Amino acid sequence: MSNWAAIPSPTVSGINLGPLTFHFYALCIIIGIVIAVRVGDKRFVKRGGDLGDVATIAFWSVPAGIIGGRIYHVLTSWGSFSSPLDAIAIWRGGLGIWGAISLGTVGAWVGYRQLLKSKPHLPTFGAFLDALAPGVVLAQAVGRWGNWFNVELFGKPLTAPWALQVPLTSRPNGYESFPTFHPTFLYEFIWCVVVAILLIKADKAGFFAGAKSGTLFIAYISLYTLGRGAIELLRIDSSTQILGMRLNFWTSLLIFLGSTTWFILRKLRQNR
Questions:
Q1: Over the stretch 46-57, which tens digit does the pLDDT of each residue have?
Q2: For the CA atoms of 13, 19, 20, 23, what is the dihedral angle to 10 degrees?
Q3: 106 and 64 in contact (C-beta within 8 Å)?
Q4: Under 8 Å between Cβ of 169 and 151
Q5: Contact between residue 83 and residue 74 where contact means Cβ atoms under 8 Å apart
Q6: Pair 210, 272: CB distance under 8 Å
């Protein structure tokens, strides 16, 4: 394969404006948050919420999600940090989705309870999560482009037109002779967009009609982890290993099995 046919890696990861540096990774996260709020707000209004409610709750969920995502990444990748101060260098990348979703959901729950005090007419918290799910997975899709800007989280060597060119300085030990790799950031971007479309289409088609609130959110978790687990099999960046497999593979597998079982049981109860 000719190198010109591969996806190039960016040569810059941010821009300097005076004394300030704006990192593209952070910009991708911000754009993703805006998309999640816009999509979620529109969908929540249709479920009985008020315009602006999602943005209000985002003040609780977003900081909690970022903190949770960073804590998970640090705890599961501690060996990759050269000093304790690196643990807070979030602009270099490193947000674990499991920590972000977990603590972000807790933050959303706290914010929702506060909002209910002034708006008791709002639907259940599960209905809120159902409204938010497609926007959240779209935010994850946009966030993966931040990994591209940081030249990180790519996969095994690949010789194909869609392979990612990786500069020598960014190649892992043992892979210095390979110029191109699987663009796993792109795979996950595509999968997240597909999941969002499936959720929105299924919701409009009435697939979740009559289901207990929160079922669509469970479907999002199940679908996302299905793709994420497969992508984890391709990644070669440093990670905690269990039985020869990456920690995030096992996490994806367990969450997929749990959420899928929960989803099936809910659908069976609905059809009784």
A1: 999 999 999 999
A2: 10
A3: yes
A4: no
A5: no
A6: no
Angstrom distance (rounded) from CA 106 to CA 102: 6
Pairwise CA distance, residues 112 & 201, whole Å: 26
Q: Which of 109, 144, 133 is nearest to 219 (CA)?
A: 133
15 φ, ψ (degrees, to nearest 5): -130, 145
Give the contacts of 167 (CB within 8 A, at least 6 positions apart): 9, 151
H or E stretch including 194?
helix 184-204
pLDDT (tens digit per residue) in 136-188: 999 999 999 999 999 998 999 999 999 999 999 999 999 999 999 999 999 99
Residue 127, token pair as written in the block: 């209905």
Which residues lie below 8 Å from residue 23, measured CB to CB, with a gap of 6+?
13, 14, 91, 149
**What are the structure tokens assigned to 59, written together?**
């003040």
State the DSSP H helix or E strand holding residue 245, giving kind and residue range, or none if neither: strand 245-246
State the pTM of this model. Answer: 0.91
Q: Is the pLDDT of residue 1 over 50?
A: no
Give CA separation, 249 vs 132, 228, 232, in Å.
25, 8, 6
Cβ(236)–Cβ(172) below 8 Å: yes
pLDDT tens, residue by residue, 65-119: 999 988 888 877 766 666 666 666 666 666 788 899 999 999 999 999 999 999 9
- Torsion sign, CA atoms 164, 169, 170, 171: positive
Measured CA to CA, the distance from residue 36 to residue 177 in angstroms comes to 40
